[in-house]
């Protein structure tokens, strides 16, 4: 344990700023997902659209991301994450601002969401997690937790910032200002402070005119053929379908209990605040306990949250508690999947293999909010969607609990022998 602690301290002394830079980059890649919720109502009202029609742009965007997830992951394995990150942060913020140019024509709405999806491809989760995983071994769980706190930052900042800006400037100008603010914060930090071991190895190899030493782990084909990979795919799909749908519509669910838009945004921000300890506690436990069981327990909390929303009476306290449970698990979800992917398959082809997991995450993200919108349009209530979430979370927990122990030799890190 002492040796493991010494290794963890050494990693943080040397690379401690990297997960923080990666966290801001990761927040950028979900600005159009976690930031959309507060814009759904004003856009729908201006254009006379249903919530389903408004949300379909996000669905289209994430389907494209799902189709491109594995090629993007393979590109990270080949070229390293730094260049993609620098370009992608700038493009994503510009594309989010471009959503404000919507004309009310559905073809135009589809087109600007396609632009949004293509712009955010270079900064998918694979870029940030692969760089951090390449630098941290003894404390990989907590380092990934800090990185993925970027989504927690997004959950806290984007809905609240968007709500405030909409009240003062309207939804179009709000999108532009929000994008500009975030670009000014995230891009300089990513540019100066984000660099993975892959980038360094390739630079050293170029200087020595040699191929970079491979990282340890399975081949892409061997990993794709395992039942472990299939189970992780299903977990990713079910979880994001339920949880992203729930999260995107959470301000609207809260408004249904009679709260004002600002009060609803404030209660929704509890999800973001709770996801921070969710990530940190989960990361700490992943480094010390069997990761699959940690995930199995964490993934049951949203079932309790849905029961509170269905039967808790709709008070601010009960909604806040439900939001806290949702946030804690939302904080754990990607941490668990990334960590398990690195431990079961190693880092050699992490980009490609996690790209497959990310594809499932993207499919769930694409259709979860759309399904929640459709449920509301049909029943004028989110209760059926909340009920379905109970079953999906239970199955996800069982699949994680069924995973075997990982093979330790897949994560034996070796320094490249480069002159």
- The overall pLDDT average reads 83
Largest sheet: none
CATH superfamily heading: MFS general substrate transporter like domains
Q: State the CATH class.
A: Mainly Alpha
Low-confidence stretches: 415-419
Principal-axis shape equals globular
Give the CA-CA distance, first to last residue.
34 Å
How many structural domains does the protein architecture include?
Answer: 1
| CATH architecture classification | Up-down Bundle
Features:
single chain; mainly alpha; disordered C terminus; Growth Hormone, Chain: A; 419 residues; 19 helices
How would you sum up this structure, described in words?
The chain has a single domain (12-194, 214-403), classed as MFS general substrate transporter like domains (Growth Hormone, Chain: A, Up-down Bundle), CATH 1.20.1250. The relative contact order is 0.16. It has helices at residues 2-15, 18-29, 31-34, 37-47, 51-79, 82-98, 106-120, 125-135, 140-193, 197-208, 220-224, 227-248, 250-255, 261-286, 291-298, 301-311, 316-345, 350-379, 383-401. The protein is built from 19 helices and no strands. Helix 8 packs across helix 9. The protein is 80% helix and 0% strand. It is an all-alpha fold.
